[in-house]
Amino acid sequence: MKELQELTKLIEEEIKNGAFPGANYAIVTPQRTYLGTVGNKSLIPSIQKNTIDTIYDMASLSKVLATTTCIFKLIEEGKIRTASKVQTYLPQFAYKHVTIWHLLTHTSGLPEGISGLLTMKSAKDVYEKIFSTPLVYETGMQIKYSDLGYVLLGLIIEKIENRPLDEVIKEKIFLPLDMIDTTYNPKNLNRCAPTELRNDDLYQGILQGSVHDEMAFLLNGVAGHAGVFSTVKDVSHFITMILNNGKYNDQQILSPTTIDLMFTPQVHEKSGVICKETIRGLGWLIGGFASSSGDLTSNQTIHHTGFTGTSIFIDRSNEIGFCLLTNRVHPTRNTSGHIEARGKIANYIMANYQKFK
């Protein structure tokens, strides 16, 4: 298919420019899925060619694929509401007015992260710091992306279900969607794309199969904000479910009303120019200026990215989804070309989306 050949060339050009070592992608429509692999899986200590079954560290895609989706499941099961107070489930948390909705929309007032991670010795240290960390703005008055809010959501899921987060996510999401290679703390390290070469108090050597995010690493690889590892094939199943109104393989994973809610804007924040605004739904970004979904997606598009070089968008109106998985932090995080690259790649996908149907 000519369009796939051109897409491969486009990705190869970005690899040549140093955006990432290699990439796996999935183009998904309600009827068809196209998978592709380009470039290398690793650069050091030796160059290894990429394969379609490479397992990637999803970083913050964990927030939407796992945690947000699980919260939606708990809402459907009548176990929680977006208006529920965080303190109802985590009485140790210092702020009684913060709700689940605030955490999902990144409007709680919590900062992005916490300082002093490299000196912390245990998960208990991390949780205690999060529970008492000062708010950096008044709750509900700004949008500030926060990993801490999603760590709390992971803890809330565990509290409601009375079992570990990874067990809950596996049962409610990964197994029903046949996401057989998707997990926290993967066992098959050889299939994992290596990430960063580190030499600090947390880790020495090349990370491979261990979560790249420092806070998730301290939380033993299982957290609400990061920790999931997956493949493009598995992520394509998730996208298929969303595009088919919550259904996968004749099984209703999420209700159509929940899918509607997923695409409903909750908060927006203008910055200077009237059209330059951040729009957030529950967990997901929606549309927006200079987004990872490029310039050609409809305003019925949800999207998210991960620090390791992962990204996903789902355009409900045009019935197409796209996932790009890379390990752009290999062997170092000091790169930025991936941000421009994914927008350009998304534009190519959307300019040709009808040909993929």
CATH architecture: 3-Layer(aba) Sandwich
- Radius of gyration (Å): 19 Å
Helix content bin: 25-40%
Order of helices and strands: HEEEEHHHHHHEEEHEHEEHEEEEEEH
The total of beta strands comes to 16
- Could you report the average pLDDT, rounded to the nearest whole number? 96
- List unreliable stretches of 5+ residues: none
Principal-axis shape:
globular
N-to-C CA distance = 12 Å
**CATH topology label:** Beta-lactamase
Give the CATH H-level superfamily.
DD-peptidase/beta-lactamase superfamily
- What count of helical segments does DSSP give? 11
Number of domains: 1
Strand order of the largest sheet: 3-2-1-16-15-14-13
The oligomeric status of these chains comes to single chain
- Let me know the largest β-sheet: 7 strands, antiparallel
* The first-level CATH class name: Alpha Beta
Class inferred from helices and paired strands: alpha+beta
Could you tell me the strand content as a percent range?
15-25%
Question: Could you give a short description of this structure?
Answer:
The protein is of the alpha+beta class. Helix content is about 30%, strand content about 20%. The protein has helices at about 1-15, 60-75, 85-90, 100-105, 125-130, 145-160, 165-175, 215-220, 230-245, 255-260, 335-350, and strands spanning about 20-30, 35-40, 50, 55, 185, 195-200, 205, 230, 245-250, 250, 265-270, 275-280, 285, 300-305, 310-315, 320-325.
